[in-house]
Amino acid sequence: MSKIQAKDVNGVRVLILNRPEKRNAIDLEMYTQLTEYLIQGNSDNDIRAFMIQGQADCFTAGNDLTDFLKHTDIDPQHPAFRFLFTLLDITKPIVAAVAGAAVGIGTTLLLHCDLVYADKSAKFQLPFVHLALVPEAASSLLLAQTVGPKKAAELLLLGDSFDAETANKLNLINDILPSDSLFDFALDQATKLASLPPQALQASRRLMRGNIDGIRLQMHAELEEFSTRLKSDEAKTRFHAFLNKKSHKPT
């Protein structure tokens, strides 16, 4: 079964992270699939909105670190960063539904979504510095714009996890929903967006997003630093310690 499931419902392309045995850790193949689904949907007039979700117990545990250690040559065509730049360039609205862990990319991609809903099980974390890396997805810029510079520093530099109530207070999500209605509610919201006049919707979204060129420049700056950090001895030490710790966890 595909690690990314896609279905089109009432003008909404629903993308489901489907690697539960790895807590939806995103590998390079998954990034490639996500990018292709987004690009194709963005050019399809029958698709007017996107929705991204995981399973009821996990959104995503973040990047597949083993995969990253095998592919440390980072440029804009690297599958992970191509996905991030595609998120930036999507012209149609994106809704996300978050249950369980939303680690690293699981939190930063939300900054590019128009509407985000979570249940009480959602746990967000930005552990880049913990792994001797730097933020991505322009989160070093967008997070400060969303929550303020001091709170952004706390979330990005300390990298502690935080719950759905905190995310809601910080305006990182729109609302907290009961677990049994989260996905249906998010899809309803995406369907509402898909039913609106598409040109006016996309134009309004474009105006609200502001300086896309500035965001793109920040993403390129992050990419260059991320590439340098990923190859550093500091990162290799942290990565191997993290993977070794995971391999010794009781099952």
* CATH-defined superfamily: 2-enoyl-CoA Hydratase, Chain A, domain 1
Question: How large is the count of helical segments?
Answer: 11
Residues in helix, %: 40-55%
Count of domain modules: 1
What is the helix/strand order?
EEHEEHHEEHEEHHEHEHHHH
CATH architecture: Alpha-Beta Complex
For the record, the CATH class is Alpha Beta
Distance between the termini: 24 Å
Major sheet strand order: 1-2-3-5-7-10
The overall pLDDT, averaged over residues, is 95
Shape descriptor reads: globular
Radius of gyration: 17 Å
What is the fold-level CATH name, i.e. the topology?
2-enoyl-CoA Hydratase, Chain A, domain 1
- Based on secondary structure, the structural category is alpha/beta
Quick one: biggest sheet? 6 strands, mixed
How many strand elements? 10
Question: Beta-strand level of the residues, as a percent range?
Answer: 15-25%
Briefly say what this structure is.
With 251 residues, the protein is an alpha/beta fold. Helix content is 48%, strand content 16%. The protein has a single domain, classed as 2-enoyl-CoA Hydratase, Chain A, domain 1 (Alpha-Beta Complex).
Give a written overview of the molecule.
This protein is α/β, with parallel strands linked by helices. It has a single domain (4-181, 193-200), classed as 2-enoyl-CoA Hydratase, Chain A, domain 1. The chain has helices spanning 28-43, 65-70, 79-89, 105-108, 139-147, 149-158, 164-169, 182-194, 198-209, 212-230, 233-247; strands at residues 4-9, 12-17, 49-53, 58-60, 94-98, 101-103, 115-118, 123-125, 162-163, 175-176. Helix 5 crosses helix 6. The model has no long low-confidence stretch (mean pLDDT 95).
